[in-house]
Amino acid sequence: MRKLPRLALSLVLVALIQLLPFSYSSAFAAESASAAEAPEAVTLTHVEAMAELKRLQIAQDEIKQQASGSSNNPKLDGLDDALRQLAADVDKLTATLTAQRAALQAQLDVLGPPPDAGTAKEAPAVARQRAELNARKAQLDEERKQTADSQENIANLKDQVAKLHRSQLRDQLALRSDSILNPQFWAPLIKRSAEDRERLGALRDEVVPLLALAWQPAQRVGTVLWLVFALAVWSLGRRLLERGAAWFCLTQLPETRLRRSALALAMALTTVLTTALAAQIVFSTFTRGYELTPEFQELIAQLGKLMMTSALIAGLGRALLCTKHPSWRLPALADPVALAMKPFPTVLAGLLLLAGTLELLSRLADTSVQVTLLGRGLVSLVVVLTIGAALLRANRVRTELAAAGERPEARATLAGLIHAAVTLVVIVSMVALLIGYISVARFLTYELVWFDIVLCTLYLLTQLTRDVCETMFSSAHRSGRVIKQLFGVDDSHLDQVSTVLSGIGASLLLLMAVLALLTGGFGSTPADLLNTLLTVLGGEKLRSLNIMPDRILNAVIALVVGIWLMRAVRRWLDQELLPKVCGEPGLRASLITLFSNVGYVLLVLLMLSLLGVKWENLAWIVSALSVGIGFGLQEIVKNFVSGLILLTERPVKVGDMVSLAGVEGDIRRINVRATEIQLGDRSTVIVPNSQLISQNLRNVTMSNSTQGVATLQLTFPLNIDPEEVRDLLLEAYRENEAILDIPAPSVTFSQLAPNGITLSVTGYVNSPRIAANTKSDLLFEILKRLRAADIALSVPQTLRLENTAAALGT
């Protein structure tokens, strides 16, 4: 009887489980009836969803084919419209599938989790319905995954079409339009076409609601406060940061040139940082609570880059001109010249921001060619007039200084070349604007602005690097003393480390500047430069000897920059590093020669790489050289190897006095093939390096002795008084000005022979190079004194044997 309640309870549970689907369907029908006025939800079967996905994929393939074959802007505009429509279809399909999956998940939630294995079994109808729902859910997940892939592919297609747009604009540099003097060029400012009004109106319809939302009565006070705060950050915050940086540089940094360079960098960075913070506040103020479209987000990103670039221009101008504190100015500019150029960086930054914003809006609205050229012309005209006015005003001030008798600032050759190049670009850009080549003028002016930014940044960072190294490794400051005590080095080693690190830092900065000029452009950020550099370094390898114009241009640029860099580094080695590392002039000359030879070989290899020459393609050259070396180049190779041995082992060095096979003189230069020896008559003998290695060589100055020896051997008759002759010889040596008192001259009885006695007299001089002249003077004086003392030298005697019998004929 106790089992009956349990059985009844089980039957009730089974009945409830069977009625759950019907109750859910009734509830769903009630919800549908209550939402009769809402749009009817679209339900797609698996077959219909897969068919729609296939259609979208076919449409994407067609757009790809059209994009690869399009060669003009109208076709690309049509592709943009097709991509927008395709993206809308994908979004619609994604929303439908998402809604269906949510409905299925709701049904599964009503059914609840499946029962455990230990409990009562689930009704067959419920289990079947659960399985069907799970299967359809898996299908919907797969379909949604495919729609997500379609969205990603469409985004990639948009990027590719945008790149095609930019590449075609670069290819259309030779497009000629109306001159800036022609009223038709400025016509879009007064009267725009219907298409341009429609596109600009669409952009206005997207921007105005954003501004209106931020200016609603509930948010108006907050918007005003945030804008005032942004203005305070940009103006007052910049001044406070500059004062704080000035206090830190003047009180915390050592009294060296590091204060000037650090303060200049701080002025530039504070301008950029406060501008970035103020711009971020403004953007956040107007975009809070508003969902931005991808196009508008791209506009804000590009506008942010433009603002940062303009801020950098203004910051670099203020940092390098430094009109408030002329003693802190880094470049050698006269005060009147700096004051005359003071307003131009700020004016250029503001006008570039305004004109660049107009160009960005025109690009976002996809206006006509005439409006686009108008925006480019405005940007180019702003840059040309501002930079041209700055150059004219600076030149006029320098002319006035020269006329007043004041000496203007000294200018290096490189600075003069840069000034001439900038002037030439300004003139060419203005001519291009006047004759209608707007795209050419815009390209030149943007490249000019980017070149000025990179050059000024390179100068500032180079000065900072040099000042940091000199201050950190100076024994006059705490850091240098700590390093000196920690590593146990002396002052000369600190100077060497400072020179090496500053040289390495300057070289790296120069390399980065060259890469920025080649891979970047106006409006580029450090992240953009890094991505472009990685793309360049990770590009496709050169595959054949395919000489192209762009490769030839890169090779020529590398050659010019490489030669200039080699000369600069060689000058730095000769004037800064090696005098501190090695005090011997001969070793310095040998090291500089070795560096030059290795550097030029590497430069040639770099040029071959830039030309596209693969090393395996030079195998036949290597084979031919090996055969030539085996037959005709043995001596050249031997001399080359000998030259390397001379430069490394240094048995002789530049400046040594040597004697080789009757040739005696000073070594002036050691090349990899031959050595130049200058004789006493100023003539030069070129000796192959192999002779210096393989033959007996007398190095007079190898022991670094500063004294030379003047030795004379004289033979006298046997009947002289040796002591009298000795005194006469010593007196002649002592009275000669070139003979040193210490060590004192000496006379040695060298030999006693039947024809006389041989006396050897020796004296020391200051240098081996004056020993020959001193010996000549001593011989004149000694012969004069011997004649006065009536002492004759021994006459050489010869013994001749004759056959007397043969002479008499007997």
Strand content: 5-15%
Mean pLDDT: 76
Task: Report the major sheet.
Answer: 5 strands, antiparallel
Helical fraction equals over 70%
* Cross-sheet strand order for the largest sheet: 4-3-2-1-5
- The domain count comes to 6
Count of helix runs: 25
Low-confidence sequence ranges: 1-40, 533-545, 804-810
- Per DSSP E runs of 2 or more residues, the count of β-strands stands at 8
- What best-fitting shape do the alpha-carbon axes yield? elongated
Task: Give the helix/strand class.
Answer: alpha+beta
| Cα Rg | 45 Å
N-end to C-end Cα span = 180 Å
Family: Belongs to the MscS (TC 1.A.23) family.
Signal peptide: 1-29
Domain Mechanosensitive ion channel MscS C-terminal: 712-792
Subcellular location: Cell membrane
Briefly, what is this?
Residues 1-29 form the signal peptide. It is a multi-pass membrane protein. This protein has 810 residues and is an alpha+beta fold.
Task: Name the descriptors.
810 residues, alpha+beta, Methane Monooxygenase Hydroxylase, Chain G, domain 1, five-stranded antiparallel β-sheet, 25 helices, 8 strands, 70% helix, elongated, disordered N terminus, disordered C terminus
